[in-house]
Amino acid sequence: MTSAWVGERVRLRATEPEDWEAFYAFEEDSDAVRSGWRLHPPTSAARAKKWAAEHAEKDPDLDEFRLVIATKDDNAPVGSINTHQVDRDAGTFAYGIAVGTPHHRKGYAGDAIVILLRYMFFERRFQKAEAWVYSSNDASLTLHRRLGFVEEGRRRRSHYANGRYEDEVLFGMTIEEYTERYA
């Protein structure tokens, strides 16, 4: 028996209450947090525990959801991936991904993205995935190009972090492009 949520290196799974500690620790690397979205004021351990408990109890949605990226071998959390901006009429969705700094460059992000796209394309009938990447995030730009995403556009000076404005680069992949490469 094989799970659709398991790849070569990772498994995607729901949040468990005990995951709070890993995600709390990931927030300590401000540069990594900025490259994924935005830096927030520090949170307490109690708030991190509450967040994890609330997510663990949340009823899943078929199209808009957040999953933990966990190592395949020991199920330890290394990051998260989520879907958003779901447009059922157009058949498009966007996703965001974050991997904790100690787990960078181990193939976890790429594996998680391929699993997510397979589900959204072949189980939920979407036809296109989109991802916005900040122009200073060289690792993510390289990853999306390597995975076969096409650079579709650029929003100039649309993100502000660490005292400077930067561009957002839009990447897209259609189901046909995914199928040609991964199916």
From TrEMBL:
Q: Which PROSITE patterns match?
A: GNAT
Residue ranges that the Swiss-Prot or TrEMBL entry lists as coiled coil: none
Q: What are the GO MF terms of this UniProt record?
A: acyltransferase activity, transferring groups other than amino-acyl groups
Keyword annotations from UniProtKB, A to Z:
Transferase
Q: What is this protein called?
A: GNAT family N-acetyltransferase
Q: Which organism is it from?
A: Nonomuraea turkmeniaca
What InterPro entries does this protein map onto?
Acyl_CoA_acyltransferase, GNAT_dom
| Annotated ranges, domain N-acetyltransferase | 10-176
